[in-house]
Every structure is written in C-alpha cells, then in structure tokens.
From TrEMBL:
It comes from the Bacteria. Residues 24-93 form the ABM domain. The keyword Oxidoreductase applies. Keywords: Monooxygenase, Oxidoreductase. One of its GO terms (molecular function) is monooxygenase activity. Pfam families: ABM. This is Heme-degrading monooxygenase HmoA. The keyword Secreted does not apply. PANTHER family: ABM DOMAIN-CONTAINING PROTEIN, BLL5343 PROTEIN. It comes from Nonomuraea roseoviolacea subsp. carminata. InterPro entries: ABM_dom, Dimeric_a/b-barrel, Jasmonate_Hydroxylase-like. Coiled coil: none annotated.
Amino acid sequence: MSNIPSEAPVTPVEAFDPPYYVAVFTAVRTQEQSGYSETNARMEDLVKNIPGYLGMDYAQTPGGLAITVGYFRDADALTEWRSDAEHRAAQKRGRAEWYESYTLHVAKVERSHGFRRA
C-alpha cells in the first residue's frame, strides 16, 4: 500500500471487531516526486471501492519516514487491493521513481480497542 492520504484524518481509524487485517507500509521517498500526488489521489479513490476496506491512517516524521496503515476486513479484501492492476502499476512506478526504500508488513489483528475523550 503506497498511499499518502491527500487529507490526513485528525483522528485515528476506529477500532474494529477482530479479526481483520492491516497492511503497514513504511517508506522514505526520493527527491523525484513528479506525478506522485495525482497517482496517490487515484489510489485513494480505488482502495475505497474495495469491498472490505475499512480505512487508513498515515503519519510522517520530520525526517521523512512515512507510515501508512491500511485496514481490511478480511484477507480477500487485502488480496483484491494487492491484485488491482492500477495499484500494481503505481507500485512499479514507486519503485522506479518515488521511493528510496520501503517495507510492507501485513498482519492479522487479534485484539483492538480505542479511546476517545468526550
């Protein structure tokens, strides 16, 4: 998942009833970012149409490390996103142009809870 939301939320994605899946994409970007914003916006639109997509959190450190966490109801939803042709093309371009390095971790969530100040 290589998305950086165009409008980062001010609250985290809610806690869901487990099990569900997360894809944690951590990246350092290159100086060359031509076309990145447009591709990122398109990826945001695409992933929202995946049945079982639950949401996304994003954070970036001042030093440039970006972390995107995508939440998916089940493995089938995550597989559909991973297999999307436009997403695959964006990943290929990301490796060629936009990312200095990245890691992807996929995990099944077994416990989840949240807190919100009233």
